[in-house]
């Protein structure tokens, strides 16, 4: 073969080779026709299945049946990068469009049943090379047909990743998963896998076939039994196991996890595991990340066992009950990246747990423990990777120093710095100077440290990515003045409780256009609010309370802040109108303590679960704004006290939980049509209401506080009051109630404070009052807003995430209205005191003073051992002071004055160690007053005045001496020494009564024996009557004549 033929041969061969490559390349540029058709069938199924069934244009718009459309270029589809035509990944997560998915997740069961949809798993069979399938966030309720689940995917032998998070497959899916033997990652987050433990064990017993599985996530599934962990333990290949956010209790067996020798990540946070779970964990020597957060773990950490975990890189022990010292070996764990021991009871010196050699640390949180001593932040000078430092403390025993040694230069650039209530730089009280060189901060919180100096505006200037700035409760002074530029990242600013002053910048709204939360309360800011505050269109919470602002509320604030949920302008000097009509999203509005004169009640808000409106302590007058109630159908709290409203209360208050109309000008009777099924607190004090308590009020079974003081209510207390079983405070003083005190009040066992004073009650004090708790039953602090808790959960938007664990960084976790706690006024210790919060929880009292009660004081009152104040003064009570009163160990005020009590004052009362006020004045008590010991040494003469027969200190009258050698009470030697007023009261009353009867019988007998005397007596009386009559008639006639002449 000559050279030319050979060249021709090779040329033809090369040409054919290029042609083959071209054909193959052209072929590989498109996906397989079988898979393309499969995807189109899948889309058709999804369109008719996913609620609301009408999203064909929205759902997967790039999946179209066109000849030139390559399915490898379709959204949510990934093909093999080498061959180019096999589909290897389908990301079909979150297909349900908002707001339908939100409704689906959070609605009632009926919604799930109405919009339930099932997945046809067979539609995935065409994708033979599929490696990853993500169907999360779709609200799927199961598979069709019912007898076939994900076992149909067994034909996909390359499937390695299956993500089904946040659906509703239920436990029935578990058996079918055992056939997917190629799986390496399986995630079933929030799929309602709860079922009877026996059935769950059967459902997972085949999981041992998942021999390649490395990652298993079963979090948020309400799992509550650990027996099925035996099936999981059979998966020896597991490296990452997540059981967080379930309902596990107790522990799991020590052998349940012993086969998981390859386990590197274990997350059992947010369960109810107890200490007995720990021994099985200490044997997992390969662990790199361990989260035990938010369980019921307590006691000390065992040093020897804990220190076996030498490979730990991330450790989260937060939100437990651990105590004692941390294992010293933590100082030697140089691979630690993440360390969170917050919210426990650890003690000791932080310096002994954190060393200069732990330079891998990125996240440190030692908050809310009982650490003490001095800690210098310069220890972290060489920790170049450090991003998060959190030392939030409540005991104020830890001191953190940042200025020693002077001029130390850190290598780190922090993202988060939170050091609150930790005596920061206690001596100098200055803001840390190393912050001058920090330029990447996103969150900084230095609250409750008594820091002084000018407000550090430079913190905002130096950190252009700053999102949250919290400097509350310090002593910063000066003006809030920033450079004329936009700080677009910052969303949270709190400088409340400082000494800031001056006016706000006119362009403050343009400087911080993206603020979500702004709190300037409890400062000395003044002047009008700048209109630019309306440019903060993303504002959700604004608190300017307790300042010196004045003027009218800018209309731009009301009209532009469409997201504003919380607005607190209380206790300033604002005036004009309250512009409710434009606050369309506001749920919490506090305008109290200003000078507003009118209200425009046109609120059409529909975005919030409940509402809070406080317009008390203003100058508003007029009738009850009925339109307010009509347009706010979910208004839960309405506070209108201390204004000049008048008229009557409307009937339809069905959503009201708290209603405060006290100190207004309301008149008339309470309407019998009142509908208050959710009422918890009712304040009507200081108005002009009349009539009786309407029976419809007793249908408010949730009522906790009923204050009707200082009105003109009349009638008796209905026996139906027994229906108010949860009532804690009953205040009816200063009215015209009559009748006996009903025994049905004794059925209200939860009452802590009862005031029935200044009425016309008569009869005896019910003996059953000892059945009422008066503080014996521990009660939590009750709030105006009890349903729904805090008004908003506003967080600084920063999340720390590294190789294994993820942690949300929070500051000031919630926003609570400044006066959301129930406030009660109760007269004790001679003055009216206000109680709220913890003080109200601890207070208890009974006031029956200023009535017409008769009879003796029931001995049973001495059984109310926890009562603090008892006032029975200004009645007609008789008998003796019960000796059982010595059992009232917590009594601070006892007033029995202005009654007809007799006998001696029990000497055992000196055992009342907390007694501050004692008054028995103006009774008929006799004998020696208690010795001036303990608390009785503080009581003066005024406590005993008006009792002629009392003697002994502090009174001037000394008691008569008794001869101890002669036991007889009457002796001739003492007879001459007795004073004329020292008479036995019983003898005196008996002799007086006998003398009166004898005199009456004598006069009647004389008239009977001598009738003439009786007739003369009648004539004399008749003459006297006529003489008086004519005298009055003649005098009045003369007086009228004189007036006419004038």
UniProtKB/TrEMBL annotation:
Keywords for this protein: Cell membrane, Glycoprotein, Leucine-rich repeat, Membrane, Repeat, Signal, Transmembrane, Transmembrane helix
Signal peptide per UniProt: 1-25
Topology with respect to the bilayer: Single-pass type I membrane protein
Leucine-rich repeat-containing N-terminal plant-type domain residues: 34-80
This protein's record includes keyword Nucleotide-binding: no
Keyword field contains Transferase: no
Transmembrane segments: 993-1014
Record's subcellular location: Cell membrane
Main location: membrane
One cellular component term from this protein's GO annotations in UniProt: plasma membrane
PROSITE patterns to which the protein is assigned, alphabetical: LRR (PS51450)
Family recorded in the similarity comment: Belongs to the RLP family.
Name of the protein described by the UniProt record: Leucine-rich repeat-containing N-terminal plant-type domain-containing protein
Species: Carya illinoinensis
